[in-house]
Design a protein that fits this description.
Blueprint: H1 4-36, H2 39-43, E1 56-59, E2 62-65, H3 82-91, H4 106-109, H5 114-124, E3 138-139, H6 148-156, H7 170-182, H8 186-189, E4 207-209, E5 212-214, H9 219-224, H10 229-238, E6 240-241, E7 244-245, H11 250-256, H12 263-274, H13 294-306, H14 308-311, H15 337-345, E8 350-351, E9 357-358, H16 370-383, H17 393-403
Antiparallel strand pairs: 1-2, 2-3, 4-5, 6-7, 8-9
GO molecular function: electron transfer activity; heme binding; iron ion binding; oxidoreductase activity, acting on CH-OH group of donors
Protein name: Cytochrome c domain-containing protein
Domain Cytochrome c: 25-128, 170-277, 294-384
Length: 406
């Protein structure tokens, strides 16, 4: 061999380059998976550095703060090795062995594969370390006793059982992993029992979160609200569709997560939610004013007073300004709380993909009394939502009291 040292140097160099390329591939994949798992939503405070923690998460048991998951060795996860990170993700175990509160969705993440967990960890090691501690979580007794979570984990740590993949397409199976595991959608869209655990017998049937309904994601319910496979995958990508726009808790999910997903994964999510043989999306026709209730007829004037300027007198909406009432999925919900909350609270300005925007919608809590709200809700739900029964004043009062228990 004429140049043995050169050959050795080249071999070492090529091996190093190969390892570097492999590491870069793992980091890139980890970044994508971190987006899919929507880690930023809970671990980034409003206006704060990415993944530095500090976001307050309200729960029935007190306020829980998202932790710092940057590579800070003092305040973040800089000292975690891959095994310890995997245990945190899959079992809710901190590096020191203490139990994490189940606000961390390890009941869903415990099915994340080891390969995916290692990739997520590899990516998080590359983000800027932020040397700041997140605020300390303080819960009421007995939920502030971390050893008590051991018993909770024994009963609920495995989360809601997954539907059998037998006979399902590859797209459906990928969608199940994206929805039930990485996306942990059931954590919001499944109701919870007294102990705060997801109710297995009501999987994806909808749950109330901070006064709003995370609606049912069951296939028949989605189709009844007008969702087709194409509309649903497009909605996740763009944040908007003929059915409306993402708002409230779903807007950060779009902003931080779903808009970055590959088309194949978006289609897989839609396939899983609607099924390999999706039910036909229900199409509604506008109901004429003389065919709605007297309350809804009175609500027409309220609509013209406070809604029509942006949403148009005929409910067609205005591009880049306000969504249409025709085909709007929120109006079709049996539970009127989201519609009531939006009317009272309003929606902030929304930035979607490209140059698409929606202007802020003001709240009208100080402009509409309870009877006017009831009439307006009936008009919207009966004219464009397919509802044929009236809400009464007591329904609106109960929802308002529920939103403001004090």
């Amino acid at each position: 061999m004429k140049y043995p040292l050169l050959r050795i140097a080249m071999a070492v160099g090529l091996a190093g380059s190969s390892a570097l390329a492999l590491a870069e591939t793992q980091v890139e994949r980890g970044e994508y998976l971190t987006r899919a798992a929507d880690c930023m939503a809970c671990h980034t405070a409003k206006g704060g550095a990415p993944y530095a923690g500090g976001l307050p998460i309200d729960s029935p048991f007190g306020t829980i703060y998202g932790t710092n998951i940057t590579p800070s060795k003092e305040h973040g996860i800089g000292l975690y090795n891959d095994d310890e990170f995997f245990a945190a993700l899959n079992e809710g175990k901190r590096r020191d062995g203490a139990n994490l509160y189940p606000a961390m969705p390890y009941t869903s993440y415990h099915r994340v594969t080891r390969e995916d967990a290692d990739a997520i960890h590899a990516y998080l090691k590359t983000v800027e370390p932020i040397e700041r501690a997140a605020p300390e979580t303080s819960l009421s007794f007995p939920f502030n006793v971390r050893p008590g979570i051991i018993a909770w984990n024994l009963m609920y740590g495995d989360g809601v059982p997954l539907e059998s993949p037998e006979g399902k397409s590859q797209a459906w199976q990928r969608g199940q992993y994206m929805v039930d595991v990485l996306g942990h959608c059931g954590e919001c869209h499944t109701p919870r029992g007294m102990a705060g655990a997801m109710q297995a017998d009501k999987r994806m049937m909808g749950g109330v979160l901070n006064g709003y309904l995370a609606p049912s994601l069951l296939a028949r319910d989605l189709a009844d609200r007008g969702w087709s496979h194409e509309d649903l995958s497009s909605f996740l990508k763009l944040g908007m569709s003929d059915q409306g726009t993402m708002f409230n808790e779903m807007y950060p999910v779009f902003h931080n997560s779903t808009q970055y997903l590959a088309d194949d994964d978006l289609n897989a999510i839609a396939t899983f939610l609607l099924g390999d043989q999706p039910p036909e999306a229900r199409v509604l026709n506008e109901v004429p004013l003389d065919q709605v209730s007297s309350s809804a007829q009175r609500g027409r004037q309220q609509y013209l007073n406070v809604c029509a300027g942006c949403h148009a007198p005929g409910g067609e909406g205005k591009p880049h300004i306000a969504v249409a009432m025709r085909g709007n999925t929120t109006l079709r919900l049996d539970d009127p709380r989201n519609l009531l909350r939006v009317i009272e609270d309003g929606i902030g300005e929304q930035k979607f993909t490209g140059f698409e925007r929606m202007q802020p919608m003001p709240g009208f809590a100080d402009k509409l009394d309870q009877q006017a709200l009831t009439d307006l809700l009936n008009y919207l739900r009966q004219t464009w939502g397919g509802k044929d029964s009236d809400l009464v004043l007591a329904d609106v009062q109960a929802l308002q009291e529920e939103a403001s228990p004090e």
